[in-house]
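User: For documentation purposes, I need each entry recorded in a consistent format: the amino acid sequence on its own, followed directly by the corresponding structure tokens. There are two entries in this batch. Please keep commentary to a minimum and don't merge the entries.

Assistant: Recorded as requested. Entry 1:
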Amino acid sequence: MLRGTATPPWFGPPGACWSPPYRYGGREPSTGLDCSGLVQYVFNQESSSPVPRRTSDQASASRRVSRSQLRPGDLVFF
């Protein structure tokens, strides 16, 4: 899991907005991403641990933490 407070290099300067087009089932910024596709793309760019494509698979592959342990940048599935 990625944790930290530094602005990741793929996000750009403060106030910048990286906004690839939304596309259901999308996996690539150039052709469009959906929510889980964005999570997969970003984590796979910044982490050595691959992240599954589907939201349900991402939730299953995640480690549960209590609310008091949540940190900025953590993913919350419900």
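Entry 2:
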Amino acid sequence: MNVRQTNGALLWGDLAIVETNDDALIIRREYDGDVIHCIFNFGDKEIAMPKINSLGEILFAANGANQNTIPALGALIIK
């Protein structure tokens, strides 16, 4: 299943940068009341899951990311 093709927030939603630093990027996409958070770890070390308002259903996880940690070069998309 292609997560982006099945989610309006990822296709058409407004984009806001929630947090950025040397290793991590968190963006928020919102469309028609649907809110998605995308967390990316571009670093070479695992990072703790950042505090964000919603920790709901995981739509996509890369490189073993979960609701607690994002590994090096990992990503998580949460609805």
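Summary note for entry 2:
The longest strand covers residues 24-31.
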